[in-house]
Amino acid sequence: MTYAYDPQNIFARILRGEIPNRTVFENAHALAFHDINPQAPVHVLVIPKGAYMSLDHFAAEASAEEQAGFMAAVAEVCRISGLAPGFRAIANTREDGLQEVPHFHLHILGGRSLGRMLP
Ligand code: 5GP
After folding, report:
1. What is the pTM of this model?
2. Cα of 1 from ligand 1 centre, angstroms
3. Which homologous superfamily does the CATH classification assign to the domain defined by 10-110?
4. Which of 2, 40, 55, 76 is the most exposed place for a label (fewest CB within 10 A)?
5. Which of 7-24 are b and which e, b meaning 16 or more Cβ less than 10 Å from the residue's Cβ?
């Protein structure tokens, strides 16, 4: 599969500093920030700094260092956000997944019981 990346997507613009964000954590390979329209008391988006349009793109083509840095950011977000009682991680992907922003992002949702995964 080939993955097309649009460098004008909103998260690419956040990474370039063109649009502000409420940063939760940042390292060399990932940025985590509060979702602008939170669906739970905790709703953080973790994104890689590289140009990957989806989870499968990132998993297929990101380096081991990028993948490790991303997962380290996920761990920090969970720690900082007090998610010991649990959380949900979601990566909406392309059309069937109703992905709106074509830069890979992992939603980290928590802070309350989240109900069943799908309606
Ligand atoms: P998707 O449907 O692509 O999985 O989710 C995109 C998410 O990005 C949505 O939850 C939406 O609220 C969030 N979002 C869209 N634009 C912005 C923005 O400019 N800033 C922030 N922090 N979140 C955004």
Report:
1. 0.98
2. 25
3. HIT-like (3.30.428.10)
4. 2
5. eebebbebbeeeeebeeb
